[in-house]
Design goal:
Strand content of chain A: 15-25%
Helix content of chain A: 25-40%
Radius of gyration of chain A: 21 Å
Strand order of the largest sheet of chain A: 2-3-4-5-6
Radius of gyration of chain B: 19 Å
Structural class of chain B: mainly beta
Number of strands of chain A: 6
Shape of chain A: globular
Largest interface: A-B, 43 and 37 residues
Distance between the termini of chain B: 8 Å
Strand order of the largest sheet of chain B: 1-2-3-4-5-6-7-8-9-10-11-12-13-14-15-16
Shape of chain B: globular
Number of helices of chain A: 6
Oligomer: heterodimer
Order of helices and strands of chain A: HHEHEHEEEEHH
Structural class of chain A: alpha+beta
Strand content of chain B: over 45%
Distance between the termini of chain A: 48 Å
Chain lengths: 195, 290
């Protein structure tokens, strides 16, 4: 078997075949790559947590059972890239204690992706929301007045347009995307971090 | 782990046709944390290009990260921090940026210190100057690259410098223009990226010398989002080195399905040489987490 393996590695055709097989394995079981490329993670973190000293990346695997629970709470299906795992960031202070969490989400607006960054305190209250990138023409959803409405909210609040969240005039795609993103992040946090 | 596949059909000057698996690539990324934060980032990227004819590492390095990323030390094989390259890698796009024409080198082996102070970014890198030609030390004069950047809401501006001996990439235009594969490069560059609603504007301006030959160049690139899935791409680049080369390009990018893109573009070169390249690309990227 060892001789056979050496033959594969020494033959260029064999090596190429091995690479293609590896590639196909990942390809078949893969998700589509996350388009939410976080351009300035550390600077965004300090906008929401100005006293942050450092941060840790945390990954939580989503079981099939958890996925069903999250989808039921969201009343919607998760996309394939949302359903296998969840990444968020634990913010630490100079003593190493947890100041809070940074969670990111990307939702589709009318003109592409809206990248949302949410800061959350350890007690589950929203500390702040920052819109990193968006190409929407109508930018009401990026205004301080709109985003400040989310501060202090928790998973227990009814975050809906016209209820907890007020909009100027008719709501737009950007505002709906931010609300959806915030609700989604709160549910993910509740199901995967708190429980 | 992530990766992708890049297949292209090209028509050159209306008569030469080529269908090729331009690239198949795998990326590995692992983050190791201590009790306070993320500390070590390990990156490994492998490219299999041109119908399996070339298998080369792309970026392969270890990065030690200071608190909040304010300072970092990176060692290995990585993209040089010059101009737009720092944040904008066009390796898998049809309309490319200027480094092939300008520097003749993009990735190199070395050590880099980089980070940020308030709204300013900094990077200083010392490299071998051999690019993707080989990874081993070849006793080359060292290549030094320096960049300082500033950013505010919706705008990034950078100033870059590069000096040292470069063994240019095989098949690069710079090798063709100078007639040598190794040259002593000096460069100053300014880059700007501006986000205006649905529009992203990118510009790069360079001036320098290759041995004693003066070099100057411009890149202007724009991406305009038409709908959620459709984007218009435009490009103009100019390089002056023993004559001038101009490139005008236009293309459309369509996200057919999540991660799956169809792109079509036409690029016309005039000045020193004349060539028209029409490209149709199928591109897919994926991710797998362990």
């Amino acid at each position: 078997m060892l001789l056979h393996f050496r033959f594969i590695m020494s033959s260029s055709t064999g090596f190429r075949t091995l690479i293609v097989l590896c590639f196909c394995f990942f390809f078949i079981s893969a998700l589509y790559a996350d388009v939410c490329v976080w351009r300035n993670p550390e600077r965004t973190m300090t906008k929401i947590f100005p006293d942050a000293d450092d941060y840790k990346t945390i990954t939580k695997i989503i079981s099939k059972g958890k996925r069903k629970i999250i989808e039921k709470r969201l009343d919607d299906e998760l996309t394939s890239e949302e359903s296998k795992d969840w990444i968020y960031y634990e913010i630490t202070d100079t003593g190493g204690a947890t100041s809070g969490y940074i969670i990111t989400d990307a939702e589709k607006g009318e003109y592409g992706v809206i990248e949302i960054v949410m800061g959350m305190l350890p007690d589950g209250k929203i500390k702040g929301i920052y819109i990193q990138r968006a190409m929407e023409k109508d930018k009401k959803f990026k205004s301080k007045e709109f985003l400040e409405q989310f501060i202090g909210k928790t998973i227990k609040d009814h975050i809906r347009i016209g209820e907890d969240i007020k909009t100027e005039g008719e709501s737009i795609a950007g505002e709906a995307a931010v609300i959806l993103g915030v609700i989604k992040m709160l549910i993910f946090y509740d199901e995967l971090e708190k429980k | 782990m992530s990766g992708g596949i890049d297949g292209r059909y090209k028509n050159v000057n209306g008569n030469r046709n080529n269908v090729e698996l331009e690239g198949l690539f795998l990326n590995f990324r692992k983050v190791l944390s201590d009790e306070k934060g993320d500390r070590l980032i390990i990156i490994g990227q492998l490219d299999i290009d041109n119908n399996f004819k070339e298998i080369k590492p792309y970026q392969t390095y270890i990065q030690y990260k200071g608190p909040l990323g304010k300072w970092n030390i990176r060692a290995g094989h990585y993209i040089l921090p010059f101009g737009l390259l720092s944040d904008y890698d066009t390796e898998r796009l049809v309309l490319r940026s200027l480094e092939n024409l300008n520097l003749g080198i993009k990735l190199d082996t070395g050590i880099e210190v980089f980070g940020y102070i308030e709204d300013f970014d900094y990077a200083i890198s010392i490299n071998q100057g051999v690019g993707r030609n080989r990874l081993a030390d070849v006793d080359n004069d060292k290549l030094t690259t320096l960049k300082i950047g500033w950013q505010d809401e919706g705008i990034n501006i950078g100033l870059s410098g590069l000096i040292g001996k470069v063994l240019t990439e095989e098949g690069s235009i710079i090798r063709k223009d100078i007639g040598l594969d190794t040259l002593y490069e000096k460069r100053l560059g300014m880059d700007i990226t501006k986000y205006i609603g649905q529009l992203i504007l990118r510009g790069e301006f360079i001036i320098g010398k290759d041995n004693e030959e003066t070099v100057g160049g411009i890149l202007l690139k724009t991406d305009y989002v038409l709908t959620q899935e459709l984007e218009l791409n435009l490009k103009y680049s100019y390089l002056q080195r023993k004559g001038n080369r101009n490139f005008i390009g236009a293309g459309i990018s369509h996200e057919v399905y999540k991660g799956l893109f169809f792109r079509i573009a036409d690029e016309y070169q005039f000045g020193k040489e004349y060539e028209n390249v029409a490209t149709f690309q199928i591109y897919y990227e994926f991710i797998n987490r362990f």
